[in-house]
Design goal:
Elements: E1 3-7, H1 14-25, E2 28-31, H2 32-41, H3 45-54, H4 62-74, E3 82-85, H5 91-104, E4 108-115, H6 118-132, H7 140-162, E5 167-171, H8 176-189
Parallel strand pairs: 1-3, 1-4, 2-3, 4-5
Helix pairs in contact: 1-8, 2-3, 4-5, 6-7
The structure holds adenosine monophosphate.
C-alpha cells in the first residue's frame, strides 16, 4: 500500500505526473483541484462556494476541503494506494489526513516535492492558460497570489512530513519524461 503526496507549487507539474504515476503504480489519483472544478461545472453549492476562493487564487477553507476529501477517501477503501495531488495544502489539512489514514492503518509513505522556481512557474502557467480554460491561470496577478499562498500557507506541509522523515525532493524542471524518471526512482525505493 503506497499512499503518496505529490507536492509542489502551482504549475510544478503535479497533475501531469500524478496521472502517469497512478497508471504505473496502480494508484488512485485524487486531485482536490479537479474535484472542485467538477463541482463548479455541476453548479453545486460546494462548487459555487469554492469558486469564490479559486478565482482569487486563495485556498478554499479547510473545513470544506477536508470534508470533501474525507468523503472521497472513505469511499476508496479497497484501492491499492492513493496519490494525493494538491492536498494537503495547510498544516490543518496534513493533520486531518494523518488522522484519517491512521484510522485505516495505511499512513502516508512519502511526500515528494517537485522543485521549480517561481519565475519558471509564472511562465508555465501563462502558457498552460492558452489551453486549460482555467480563470485562475490567465491572470498574472492571480498566479503570483497563488505562489504567495503556496509559500506562506502550504510550504509548512513540507516541514510537517520532513520532521517525520518522509519528505523527498526532486528537480521539477526538464522534460515530462525526465521528471517522471526521477519520480519513478524515488517511488521504487519506497
Ligand atoms: P490546483 O488544481 O491544485 O492548482 O487547485 C486549484 C485551486 O483549487 C487552488 O488555487 C485552490 O483555490 C483550490 N484548492 C485545490 N486544492 C485545495 C486544497 N487542498 N485546499 C484549499 N484549496 C484548494
Amino acid at each position: 500500500m503506497k499512499n503518496i503526496i505529490l507536492f509542489g507549487p502551482p504549475g510544478s507539474g503535479k497533475g501531469t505526473q500524478a496521472i502517469k504515476l497512478a497508471v504505473k503504480y496502480n494508484l488512485l489519483h485524487i486531485s482536490t483541484g479537479d474535484m472542485f472544478r467538477e463541482e463548479i461545472k455541476n453548479e453545486t453549492p460546494l462548487g459555487n462556494k469554492a469558486r469564490e476562493y479559486m478565482d482569487k487564487g486563495e485556498l478554499v477553507p479547510d473545513e470544506i476541503t477536508i470534508g470533501m476529501l474525507k468523503k472521497r477517501v472513505d469511499s476508496s477503501q479497497n484501492c491499492s494506494g492513493i496519490i494525493f495531488d494538491g492536498f494537503p495544502r495547510t498544516e490543518a489539512q496534513a493533520e486531518a489526513l494523518d488522522t484519517m489514514l491512521r484510522e485505516s492503518g495505511n499512513p502516508i509513505k512519502a511526500l515528494i516535492l517537485l522543485d521549480v522556481d517561481d519565475e519558471e512557474i509564472v511562465q508555465r502557467i501563462l502558457k498552460r492558460a492558452e489551453t486549460s480554460g482555467r480563470p485562475d491561470d490567465s491572470n498574472e496577478e492571480i498566479i503570483r497570489n497563488r505562489i504567495e499562498v503556496f509559500n506562506s500557507e502550504t510550504a509548512p506541509v513540507f516541514s510537517h512530513y520532513n520532521n517525520k522523515g518522509l519528505a523527498k525532493k526532486i528537480k521539477g524542471v526538464g522534460s515530462i519524461e525526465d521528471i517522471f524518471r526521477r519520480l519513478s526512482v524515488v517511488m521504487d525505493e519506497l
